[in-house]
Every structure is written in C-alpha cells, then in structure tokens.
C-alpha cells in the first residue's frame, strides 16, 4: 500500500482510487475516520490507519456502518473534521441515524462519507444505487470521474459540508475505487488539530434544548430544504461540472462518475466530437439546475449515461418538465428508452452502441475475421466457477451441516447470511443456505421461523453467520430470539478474521485498525450472557461437529449457539503456520468410476486441492494448491485419500 502521507505537494504518484480518497481526507485535515470493511472501499481505512499516528488522527474499524457514522458525527459535534467510509449496503445500515442527523445538522466541523457502489454486484450480494438515499433524505452528493478527482472532491466536500451544515456524500463505484492512476498531490495541513469541545452543554442560566436533538420535525425540515438550496447554488459554479463539445450539439450526453471516460472514449472513437457534446456532472444532488437548463437549451437530443439507476436522468427530466414549453422539443435517451441498462457496469462499447442508434451511424471496430477468431479463442478459456479456497473451514462447516440435516431427517434448513460463507447458497457450500439477504438477517429470519410451532411447524431451523458479522448485526437478532424463546440454532463460523473484505480486525480478534492490541469481546461469553446455550467445535472434526449439530437440532427451548471455530487458511499463511498434514491418494483403493461414490471427492466436495487425473481417471492431490488440512481424507468412503503428519 502506498504511503499516502508523503509531503511533496505538486509531485505525481501512482495511487489506487481508494488511496487517493484517503489522501484527500488527509489534505482536508480529517481528525477522525471510521468504517466497517466492505469492498469496494476496504482499502481506505487501512491507508489512513497506517499513517494515523504520524498525522495525528484517530482511525477505527467500527462494529457496523451505523456506529461508524455516529462516531464520525460525535467528532463533528466537537469541532473535528470527520470521515466515514462504506459500500452501498452500509448506507442502508446507517440511514436510520443519517435521517435524524440531517434534521439537527452536523457540528462546526465538516463531515463527509465516501460511499462506493458495486455495479454488477462483483463483490456484493446485491446491486444497489446509493444515490437515491441522498435525494430521499437531502444530502449533498458528488461523483468523481477519476482517482485525481476523487482526491480533490473529498477535500471540497468538507468545505461544502461546513457551508451548508450537512453530512455530504461522495459516491464512487468499483471502477473508481480500484483504478490505479497518477495523482498529483496537494498540500498537507499541519498535524495540529483544534481542541475538541462539545458546545451543547446545559446552562442553568439559559436552559434550552440542545440543537443536536431532533424533533419536532417541522422545526428542522424547513431549514433542511433551505440548506439543500444553498448547496445547489454552490454547485452551480463548481469546477467539477464540465462541458466538452460544440456550442449547439446534435446530441448532448449528460454523464457522471466513471461513465465520463466511457463517453469521451466513445465520442472520440466515432469521431463525433463536432456533433456530440458531453456535460460531465460532478455534483449530482442537488442538481445544478441553471447549468443543466442552459445546456438543455442548446440541443434537441439528450443521452444520459450513468451507473446504475436513471438517477440523473430522472432529475433532469423533472427539471425539463418544469421548463415547458421551452423543452417541449427535447427527446431523451437512456435507461428509460432502453439504450442503456439501469443495472450492471457500463462500458465504452455500450456507449458506442447507443450513439450508433441515436445518430444513425454504423461502426465496425474490427473485421468479421477477427470476430470469428475471438469467438474461437473464447472457447479455449476454461470455466472458473466460484469456489472456496483450498482448506477453507467453511467447506468443512457446510459439509457437516449438510450431513447433520440429512441424518436428522425432518427437513431442516439453513438461513444464510453474507460473507465468504454466503457461498453456502451455491455448489461450494453444497447449496445449504436457503435464504440470504442482509448482514444478520439469517438469524432474524430464523427467529421468526422458530416461533411457528403453534401452527404445526416442526422443521429444525438453523442460521449461520461469520465472526465479524456476529458483532456487526447478529447480536440484536439473537437477543430477540432469546427474549421471545424462539427455537432455532445459530451457527457462528469463526475463522478469526473479516476474511471476505481483506482480513480486517474485528472485536473478536484482539487488534485495532492501527495494529495496536485491543480488548477481545468474547462471543461465547456474550452469547451465554444473553441466555443462549453455547457449544464450541472444530468443523474439521466432522464426527464431533455433526454430533453437536444433531443434538442442538433435537433440543427444544430457545436459541442454541454453536461456534464452529477454525482459523482461515489465508490467515494461517499470513502467520506462517505450517500445514498439519501431507496428503496423497492410495491408487490401490481409489477405484475411480468403479468406486460407487460417483466421484464424491472431486465432483461434490470439490476442494481446489483435489483433482481428477485425466490419465488414470482417479482422484489426485494438486500439491500446488493443497494446504494439508486433511479434511478430504474424512469424506472419502473408500479411505483412499491418506493424510500423514507433516514434517514441521
């Protein structure tokens, strides 16, 4: 990771987009930064944590996004610039607090949240456009189109936040967060921060309600709209809004964010720069209406290019409706017309296809012979279905869950959750997860199902969550289950890390974001204190684990908790923990297709460390991938897979 605290104003460095965002926070003089890890934003907090002491900052991984936003707000209330980071899912978690924060306003110091959406759901369980939240609850919103602009925009967002006394969003997407490009560094402020002071202390000589307490809402809602109008005026003259093209274009493209590059490339590729204009909006809510109206008057055709929902498209069309009859001859193209999709990532090719149709031109990037060769080449690329890592403890957990449910024989099922173990809904988890929604929702759903006995419901209910997710969102659901005496079993698959997003620490790891030691919040003690019965097992001991699961499913009463604890193999590798076993296949016992197991090991269990020998048709160990966990020897019915103690 790059050192984002380099103090060389004017120099050019290569930065990841998330690192550029972190650098922008440093240049803005941020004192407090908080987040819960989630791709595509996971690198921002580690970049800040690495220089926190040097730059006199406080940086933390919070237990969830709502708490992270509250931590940042507390700093703003006391006069310290604060910064929150989250992915699109996190906006849902934090929204409850933000709605009320908007009513009271922030403190004297700016507060900014960088939120990065994930078009296509490449690192998420959903695809969600977070921009609608800004419009819904009236927060200023900006969208950078490059890593450089992300850095500059973060800095400016703090000025806007302080000018209008509102939390301000800067929204990126995966292409911005994960790009690597040259970034010109700006000036770093001094390390000294203002002395924090919370001004709303009670004064017996002037008793009054604090301005940081919301309600009655009528008192706050009118000023909120006034603040947004003030932001709109600021946005009208923002340098982040730019126009490129002729004075009166045949077609006006209105775009924002990462799509700006696709539009510029598409217009250049088609050599249409004399016919097509591009209005790049860096400030997308509130819409700079005067600026947009001026450009709408210069054309008769408008194409909207944005990821994902038609957010800007809808806002501009609302504006155009208010400008009738001057805009009566405008024709709009975009998601509503079907020229672009309101889902998934866009690309230069998609923009070119839209321009071809609207402008009535044809474009042939390559000849047909090249296309034929490309199709043939694509056939040579092997399928790479999703999978868990070799030796992943979750594979062991789901294997045990699958067998325990089948042995129980009462049509039990598993309510799933989000994390590495969300692959429980697919082949790597043997299709065991039957529900998957939000973090912690598996346990909340199980709590509801566990109360259906009065209606004759008699299926065993299990829920699953990871160790980080337990602290993030599962505890309230477990409390609910205990309080209401709901009959279900919570399985906590504890692999000692927030593994899915980059092995960040959490309250159970004993480490802070900055690497300093921390108090361990004992999940077993927490569950017991709540009133749940708890057992701990190692999922690699399949016999014991299956027995524990069977016993818990057959117990009555309230929630039961099983902590299935085994360290993630990648964490073991980081800590240089050697393999436990050396694996090999006994060729005399493996009978290939004559075994009768229908290739259970390579077809169903499917650890990447196992492979099918094309010459013999028998199972084999891929020594390059095998981590020596030994689990495959437990699942082979012929005992053909042999584990031997590794030499340590």
Structure write-up:
There is one protein chain. By secondary structure, this protein is of the alpha/beta class. It folds into four domains: 12-233, Thiamin diphosphate (ThDP)-binding fold, Pyr/PP domains (Rossmann fold, 3-Layer(aba) Sandwich); 242-359, Rossmann fold; 393-574, Thiamin diphosphate (ThDP)-binding fold, Pyr/PP domains (Rossmann fold); 581-645, Alpha-Beta Plaits. The protein is built from 21 helices and 24 strands. The strands form six sheets. It has a seven-stranded mixed β-sheet, with helices on both faces. A hairpin with a 6-residue loop joins β22 (610-612) and β23 (619-621). The protein is globular, with a radius of gyration of 28 Å.
Keyphrases for this structure?
single chain; 648 residues; alpha/beta; Rossmann fold; 7-stranded mixed β-sheet; 6-stranded parallel β-sheet; 21 helices; globular
Ordered list of secondary-structure elements with their pairings:
Elements: E1 12-16, H1 17-27, E2 32-35, H2 44-50, E3 58-61, H3 65-77, E4 82-87, H4 88-104, E5 111-117, H5 131-137, E6 141-142, H6 147-164, E7 168-173, H7 174-177, E8 180-184, H8 217-236, E9 242-244, E10 251-255, H9 259-269, E11 276-280, E12 283-285, H10 289-296, E13 301-305, H11 311-322, E14 331-333, H12 348-359, H13 368-379, H14 393-408, E15 413-415, E16 433-435, H15 441-449, E17 461-466, H16 467-483, E18 489-494, H17 523-530, E19 533-537, H18 542-554, E20 560-565, H19 569-574, E21 581-585, H20 600-605, E22 610-612, E23 619-621, H21 631-635, E24 641-645
Parallel strand pairs: 2-3, 2-4, 4-5, 5-7, 6-7, 10-11, 10-13, 13-14, 15-16, 15-17, 17-18, 18-20, 19-20
Antiparallel strand pairs: 1-8, 6-12, 9-11, 21-24, 22-23
């Amino acid at each position: 990771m790059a050192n984002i605290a380099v103090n060389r104003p004017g120099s050019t460095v290569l930065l990841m987009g998330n690192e550029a965002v972190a650098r922008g926070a440093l240049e803005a003089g941020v004192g407090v930064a908080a987040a819960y890890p989630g791709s595509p934003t996971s690198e921002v907090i580690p970049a800040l944590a690495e220089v926190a002491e040097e730059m006199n900052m406080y940086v933390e991984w919070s237990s969830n996004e709502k708490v992270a936003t509250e931590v940042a707000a507390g700093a703003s209330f006391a006069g310290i610039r604060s910064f929150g980071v989250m992915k699109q899912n996190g906006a849902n978690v934090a929204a409850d607090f933000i709605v009320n924060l908007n009513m009271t306003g922030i403190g004297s110091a700016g507060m900014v949240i960088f939120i990065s959406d994930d078009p296509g759901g490449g690192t998420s369980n959903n695809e969600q456009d977070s921009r609608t939240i800004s419009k819904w609850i009236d927060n200023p919103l900006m969208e950078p189109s490059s890593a450089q602009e992300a850095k500059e925009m973060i800095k400016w967002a703090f000025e806007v936040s302080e000018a209008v006394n509102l939390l301000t969003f800067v929204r990126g997407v995966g292409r911005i967060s994960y790009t690597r490009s040259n970034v010109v560094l700006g000036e770093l402020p001094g390390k000294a921060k203002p002395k924090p002071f919370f001004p709303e202390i009670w004064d017996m000589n002037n008793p009054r309600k604090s301005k940081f307490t919301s309600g009655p809402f009528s008192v706050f809602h009118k000023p909120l709209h006034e603040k947004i109008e003030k932001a709109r005026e600021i946005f009208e003259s923002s340098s982040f809004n730019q126009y490129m093209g002729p004075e009166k274009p045949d077609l006006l493209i209105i775009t924002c964010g990462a799509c700006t590059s696709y539009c510029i490339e598409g217009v250049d590729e088609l050599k249409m720069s004399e016919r097509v204009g591009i209005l790049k909006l860096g400030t997308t809510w509130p819409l700079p209406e005067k600026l947009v109206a001026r450009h709408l008057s210069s054309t008769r055709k408008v194409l909207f290019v944005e990821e994902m929902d038609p957010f800007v498209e809808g806002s501009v069309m609302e504006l155009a409706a208010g400008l009738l009859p001057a805009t009566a001859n405008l024709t709009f193209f975009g998601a509503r017309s079907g020229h672009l999709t309101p889902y998934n990532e866009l690309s230069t090719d998609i923009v070119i296809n839209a321009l071809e149709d609207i402008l009535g031109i044809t474009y042939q990037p390559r000849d047909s012979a090249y296309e034929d060769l490309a199709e043939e080449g694509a056939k040579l690329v092997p399928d790479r279905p999703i999978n868990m890592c070799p030796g992943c403890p979750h594979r062991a957990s789901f294997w045990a869950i699958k067998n325990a449910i089948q042995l129980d024989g009462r049509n039990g099922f598993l309510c799933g959750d989000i994390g590495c173990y969300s692959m429980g809904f697919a082949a790597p988890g043997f299709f065991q997860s039957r529900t998957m929604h939000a973090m912690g929702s598996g346990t909340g759903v199980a709590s509801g199902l566990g109360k259906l006995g009065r209606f004759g419901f008699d299926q065993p209910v299990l829920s699953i969550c990871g160790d980080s997710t337990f602290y993030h969102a599962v505890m309230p659901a477990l409390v609910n289950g205990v309080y209401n005496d709901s009959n279900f079993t919570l399985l906590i698959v504890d692999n000692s890390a927030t593994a899915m997003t980059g092995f960040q620490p959490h309250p159970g790891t004993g480490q802070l974001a900055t690497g300093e030691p921390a108090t361990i919040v004992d999940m077993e003690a927490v569950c017991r204190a709540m009133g749940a019965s708890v057992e701990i097992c190692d999922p690699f001991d399949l016999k014991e684990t299956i027995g524990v699961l069977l016993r818990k499913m057959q117990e009555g009463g309230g929630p039961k908790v099983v902590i299935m604890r085994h360290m993630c193999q990648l964490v073991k590798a980081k800590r240089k923990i050697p393999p436990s076993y050396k694996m090999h296949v006994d060729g005399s016992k493996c009978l290939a297709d004559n075994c009768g197991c229908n290739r259970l090991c390579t077809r169903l269990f499917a650890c990447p460390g196992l492979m099918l020998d094309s010459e013999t048709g028998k199972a084999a160990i891929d020594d390059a991938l095998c981590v020596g966990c030994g689990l495959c020897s437990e699942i082979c019915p012929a005992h053909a897979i042999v584990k031997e103690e590794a030499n340590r």
